[in-house]
Amino acid sequence: MKTDVVVVGAGLSGLVAARRLLQAGQGVCVVEARDRVGGRTLNADIGDGQVVEIGGQFTGPGQDAIQRVAGEVGVATFATHTSGTHLMELRGRTRRWSGANPRIGPAASLSYLRAQRELDRMAREVDPRTPWQAARAADWDGTTLDAWMRQRMRSESARTLLTMAVRAVWSIEPDEVSLLHILTCINAGHSLERLVRTRDGAQQDRFVGGSQRIAEELARTMPDQLRLGHPVRRIVQDGHHVVVRADRLEVQADRVIVAVPPMVCRDIEFEPAMPVGRQQLLARTPQGTTLKYLAVYDEPYWRAAGLSGQVASDRGPVGAAFDNSPPGGRPGILLGFVVGRHARSLLTLPVAEREQQVLDCFARWFGDRALSPREVLVGSWTEEVWTKGCYAGFHPPGLWTSFGACLRQPHGRVHWAGSETATRWIGFMDGAVTAGERAADEVLTCQAQGVLR
Ligand SMILES: Cc1cc2nc3c(=O)[nH]c(=O)nc-3n(C[C@H](O)[C@H](O)[C@H](O)COP(=O)(O)OP(=O)(O)OC[C@H]3O[C@@H](n4cnc5c(N)ncnc54)[C@H](O)[C@@H]3O)c2cc1C
Fold first, then answer.
1. Residue 8 in contact with residue 386, Cβ under 8 Å?
2. What burial class does residue 390 get, using C-beta atoms within 10 Å of its C-beta: 0-12 exposed, 13-18 middle, 19+ buried?
3. In this structure, which residue's CA is closest to atom 35 in ligand 1?
4. What is the pTM of this model?
5. Å from CA of 145 to ligand 1 middle
6. What family does this chain come from, according to its entry (predicted)?
7. Mean per-residue pLDDT for 22-31?
């Protein structure tokens, strides 16, 4: 089969790239390993025509790209449930709180807010398009966020709180990530405060009908271009064209856009081989670890007790919880994120034991009724062969300054998309959209100029 452009991966990034290319009159073939579209967005049916999200779900102010695309395909947003009192488990104490910030004592609060402000200020010195060019890039990429926290934050409670925030936002531990990477992501997501917050922040809204609907609606506009269930194994190029070899499918094209997560991209064989910088980049980009649990109850019974369903915990295994009920409030759904170190430890247990530990957390916060959900759904993304971890890939120390310049550099006729290659909202659905559009524009420019880079 022959076409102008092959897109590998029918997640949001690949689908948006394909849409832009089709709009520009290009022939397109989207080759997807799974038998569904949406990648890291996935809806689960909970009956009565309602769904809940197993993958990415939240959106908020400043995420204009995903909201624009959602609007264009007729998917609206609704507010995440936040009314009521939130809970925080911190260093052996459970606190109830409401308003902007949890009360953790004046010294700890001050230490946390100072650190947040300092990180936001440092982040403004980092251009997310070229983090390796920041004046202090070498220093910041030579250390971890944890090392910086130990140096700058005297309060242990404040450090624990920031660790909880980092786990919740990026599903990683502060001692494994480059300080420069965190600053890049903070700038790309406006500010740490915006990344962390629900109201006025990145968790403010959800998509009606579930986020996967956006991918499904995009896919509906290109039925003839989609090839589902064909894992791409090999991409071979010469001076004239590129051939994409997938299971039971071979497509020849002028150019290819690869829109898959970094750890999965490592498994595709490239001929000629990728340049050394990009090989190193992929080999050293791990992905976060997340198990996302959704416990379904007849009603959101915790609301009657004045609780919002929102919890942050350093004890775990659930590190963050939300009321994830559908817009109408029935059934009641508790969402529990098990992330970072807690997720890696939970993943070593049998599935039934994992679930029990999660329900035990819910019972600790919302009473024994939590132990009897009518259904429990789980997204175990590290165990998904076509994802291998989430929410996204991240950079340990040294990576941005050594190999960052290779992140978006095309390899001959092969271009790179996916939320990890974004320069705004890196690792988010919004980033997936802008990365897909950027890669499509690169291809269109090359096609127009007849360029082989
Ligand atoms: C549990 C969880 C919670 C999240 N929470 C949020 C959130 O609240 N808000 C937010 O904005 N983002 C969130 N994210 C992140 C967000 O979902 C992702 O950044 C975004 O969806 C990534 O889109 P993508 O197209 O770049 O990659 P993907 O969605 O991973 O798409 C890649 C596609 O490529 C396919 N593929 C892989 N390998 C091959 C191959 N060899 N051949 C063919 N196809 C292949 C995959 O099957 C997949 O369909 C979350 C993610 C998860 C998993």
1. no
2. buried
3. 9
4. 0.98
5. 25
6. Belongs to the flavin monoamine oxidase family.
7. 98
